[in-house]
Amino acid sequence: MPRAKTGSFSFERFVRKDLRDMEPYAPIAFPGSLPGDGKAANGELIKLDGNENVYGCSARVQRALADYRGYHIYPDAEQRELREALAGYTGLSAAQILAGSGSDELIELLLRLTLDPGDCIINCPPTFGMYEVNAKFCGGEAVAVPRESSYELNVPGILKAIGPTTKAIIIANPNNPTGTLTPRKEIEALLETGLAVLVDEAYYEFCGETVADLLPTRGNLIVLRTFSKWAGLAGLRIGYGLMSPELVQRLMAVKPPYNINAAANLAALESLKDVEYLQGTVKALVKEREHLAQRLLELEYLQPIPSAANFILCRVLGRDAKQLWRELRTKGIYIRHFKELPEFIRISVGKPEQSELLIQALRR
Ligand SMILES: *Cc1c(COP(=O)(O)O)cnc(C)c1O
């Protein structure tokens, strides 16, 4: 983008000192945003880089958004209708639920609420990049306790890393980008520390594993979920947290009042009225995940890691993974490559015909 003229003025001196040389979160490079980005032979984009639901959202959402006549009215700051509907879906009470503009917003709000300057979270890379970025943005630090060779948690390492300024432990389960699950026993062991334990279940619907049932007895547990992945609402930004009623009230007091916009609110409500349809797409994606993993395994230069989510991380052997990522983009096939994991690619699971085109391209 061309640089706008600002004269000799530099904003730099107004930026918080601790943020001046912060590593930015590297989001998905939007299709068409890099030189050489192309379309597939059928003229379409094969977008397998964002763990989005390729089947899209429920048709009920499309209809309801078109018919809605209340866009000129601020939404309910207390999210009553949505929290009630989520209570029905999760089996918890509305008092234990708070919705956010994507679960990303809830991660930030939770860290802003809890971290004093210099406080720490424990982070277990390779994992979702927003935990570290948000910890820094909220004035804290992320202490990394890397995962073991098969991406399992290093629980003794986590326990050892806890210090007087440690406030929270954050675990994505299943983990992104590895797709691996953490056994419930290990999460229970982390809860025993008495620290806030944030379990990010963004891919819950793809595996059915949850620790939400521990909430009534574990006041330090926070479970995050989202409509972005299973319900096909990534573009509308809607997620939710399950936590103690006390913490819900705390967050309610500091969140932007209208953090859930009317369209996202309505889309989530309609999705919850069409769970059976959405579960059908989840089932198709899980089936395709297993099929795709098998096909990837047949390629001698790829080592797919068994996944409980809607994506597959693959180690790339004897080839440059970034180059592969680049080349696929020119053919209209978008997958993910991470700077932190230079020898890997992450592929979101799509439709069978998209897997077919991907495999054909990977064979060449
Ligand atoms: C995609 C993802 C999120 C973000 O979800 P949004 O609700 O879209 O903000 C959070 N956590 C993990 C682990 C994810 O993979």
Structural class by sheet pairing and helices? alpha/beta
* Unique ligands: pyridoxal-5'-phosphate
Summarize the amount of helix as a percent range: 25-40%
Instruction: Detail the poorly predicted runs.
Output: none
Question: Distance N terminus to C terminus?
Answer: 34 Å
Spatial arrangement of strands, main beta sheet: 2-8-7-6-5-3-4
Please tally the β strands and state the result.
13
* Order of H and E elements: EHHEHEHEHEHEHEEHHHEEHEEEH
Beta content: 15-25%
DSSP helix count? Answer: 12
Largest sheet: 7 strands, mixed
Mean pLDDT: 95
Q: What would you report as the Rg, rounded to the nearest angstrom?
A: 21 Å
Shape: globular
Provide structural commentary.
The protein is of the alpha/beta class and 364 residues long. 34% of the residues lie in helices and 16% in strands. The protein has helices at residues 59-67, 80-90, 103-114, 130-137, 155-161, 184-191, 204-207, 245-254, 262-272, 275-297, 321-330, 352-363, and strands at 46-47, 97-100, 120-123, 141-144, 166-172, 196-200, 221-226, 239-242, 302-304, 311-316, 333-334, 336-338, 341-348. Strand 3, helix 4 (130-137) and strand 4 (141-144) form a beta-alpha-beta unit. Helix 1 (59-67) packs across helix 9. It is globular and about 55 Å long. The protein starts with 45 loop residues before the first strand and ends with a helix. The model has no long low-confidence stretch (mean pLDDT 95). The protein binds pyridoxal-5'-phosphate. Pyridoxal-5'-phosphate binds next to helix 3.
